[in-house]
Design a protein that fits this description.
- This protein is an alpha/beta fold.
- It has 2 domains: 44-226 and 422-435, Rossmann fold; 231-420, 3-Layer(aba) Sandwich (Rossmann fold), CATH 3.40.50.2000.
- Helices cover 48% and strands 14% of the residues.
- It has helices spanning 7-43, 74-90, 103-113, 127-137, 151-159, 173-180, 183-190, 201-209, 231-243, 262-275, 291-300, 327-333, 352-356, 371-379, 389-401, 403-420, 423-435; strands at residues 67-70, 96-100, 118-121, 141-145, 164-169, 195-198, 217-219, 251-257, 280-285, 305-307, 318-320, 336-339, 361-363, 383-385.
- The strands form 2 sheets. Strands 3-2-1-4-5-6-7 form a 7-stranded parallel beta sheet, with helices on both faces. It has a 7-stranded parallel beta sheet with strand order 10-11-9-8-12-13-14, with helices on both faces.
- Helix 2 (74-90) packs parallel to helix 3 (103-113), helix 5 crosses helix 7 (183-190) and helix 9 packs across helix 12 (327-333).
- The longest helix is centred in the N-terminal third of the chain and has 37 residues, at 7-43.
- The chain is globular.
């Protein structure tokens, strides 16, 4: 009879099998990834630029020994900017490298941080690409933002003794169920983190259930609550309302919308116009590359569309937002805000910016990406969840008919934002403790 296999040995064998399977899938996927990059580049040319960076070829200008901050796209990058700026000021001798996965994220790094940091695309999670990147950069630490969980990136960094942390971490129920299907691989990855700074107790529970070490997972809140509406932002919102001829007119914004959602928003807006003929819609698709498509859709609904980037003039029916990095300002132009990705099964987008402006907020039923945040606003009476376009129109109508009710709802939202602030300071303190970086 052969020797019995100890439980720990069985666990190691299962984990090794899942790691092997993951690497095999990556090898098989390599040509498909190249094809997908080319195909996506037909619509978004940025995906055909700097392709080598995605496979581990680091630009010569990127310094070695940098603190590496990785955010996937524009939203995560914008949320991380205050943290990055404070890390840079507090640690002037430590170079900072910020990586993204999307051209929109790359654009936000350039726009908001300029030459204050180094920037390139992060490597895809192919082991050879990650190794080539780490060989060149030799980062002092790796800070991942929100949900950027890639096994090779995390495990190969830790194998080299590089501290790995996750900040502003969130994990929806849907994502947790998906990760559980490859549980041993995910558990191995999560156990390698030095710190997982997550947004809520619910997120912490999901990380722990998937195998994160209890002493590494801390609830610090969401840094997205730590935003400032400065005088310049407020003045620009007032100016746009004036030059677009919106003073005294009802204005609704539909922010970060997706295909299949603009149709519903436009139907709701047409219904709203029967009661408020002078109303204007600010329609801001999640991806500006879809601007032409959205304008054509507006026209098919019998409405006049104007690009935000066009020479400023009076807006008749719909202003289509096509300027990256201006959504926070546009919330200030509107009276009521619908936050998209929620009438279709995208999981919703961040409602905090609209609430910070004291705007009454409406979302659809699909908000699993921001469920905890949405629940907090609902409990405070600051946000309305609607099931469809018909109820979107009815809710918007009620808010416009009753300005006192709308203002009260907006004030409740702003109060939630103010009460939830402080995560940035707590995160910086945790980074100082874990990575021995100075906090400011």
């Amino acid at each position: 009879m052969g020797a019995a296999t100890a439980p720990g040995d069985e666990t190691n064998l299962v984990t090794a099998f899942f790691i092997f399977l993951y690497q095999l899938v990556l090898i098989l996927a390599w040509p498909l990834v190249r094809v997908r990059l080319w195909w996506r580049g037909r619509r978004e040319p940025g995906y055909r630029e700097r392709v080598a960076e995605r496979f581990g070829r680091v630009p010569a200008a990127v310094p070695t020994g940098a603190v590496w901050v990785h955010a996937v796209s524009a939203g995560e990058t914008i949320a991380a900017v205050p943290m990055i700026e404070r890390l840079r000021k507090a640690n002037p001798g430590a170079p900072l490298l910020v990586t993204t996965m999307t051209p929109t994220g790359s654009g936000e790094v350039t726009r908001r941080l300029g030459h204050q940091v180094s920037h390139c695309y992060a490597p895809y999670d192919f082991p050879w690409a990650v190794d080539a990147f780490l060989d060149k950069v030799e980062p002092r630490a790796l800070i991942l933002v929100e949900t950027e969980l890639w096994p090779n990136l995390v495990l190969r960094s830790r194998q080299r003794g590089i501290p790995v942390v996750l900040v502003n971490g969130r994990l929806s129920e849907r994502s947790a169920r998906s990760y559980a299907r490859v549980g041993p691989l995910v558990a191995r990855m999560l156990s390698a983190f030095d710190l997982i700074a997550c947004q809520s107790d619910a997120h912490r529970s999901r990380f722990l259930a998937l195998g994160a070490k209890p002493d590494s997972v801390r609830v610090l809140g969401s840094v997205k609550f730590d935003l400032t509406l400065n005088d310049q932002l407020r003045a620009e919102a007032v100016r746009l309302r004036q030059v677009w001829g919106l003073v005294g007119r009802p204005v609704m914004i539909a922010a970060s919308t997706h295909p299949g959602e603009e149709e519903q928003v436009l139907e709701a807006f047409r219904t709203l116009r029967r009661e408020f003929p002078s109303a204007c819609l600010l329609l801001v698709p999640r991806h500006p590359v879809r601007t032409v498509e959205v304008i054509e859709l507006v026209t098919r609904h019998g409405l006049q569309a104007m690009r935000q980037s066009q020479p400023e003039r009076r807006a008749e029916d719909v202003v289509v937002g096509d300027v990256m990095g201006t959504l926070l300002t546009l919330y200030g132009v509107a009276d009521i805000a619908f936050v998209g990705g929620s009438l279709v099964a995208q999981g919703g987008h961040n409602p905090i910016e609209a609430a910070a402006w004291s705007k009454p907020v409406i979302v659809g039923p699909h908000v699993f990406n921001f469920q905890v945040v949405v629940d907090g606003f609902v409990e405070a009476g600051a946000l309305t969840v609607v099931p469809d376009a018909s109820m979107l129109a009815a809710t918007a109508s009620r808010l416009l008919r009753d300005p006192a009710f709308a203002a009260a709802q907006g004030m409740k939202g702003a109060a939630v934002v103010a009460a939830s602030a402080g995560a940035l300071d707590r995160t910086l303190d945790a980074l100082a403790e874990t990575l021995l970086l100075r906090a400011q």
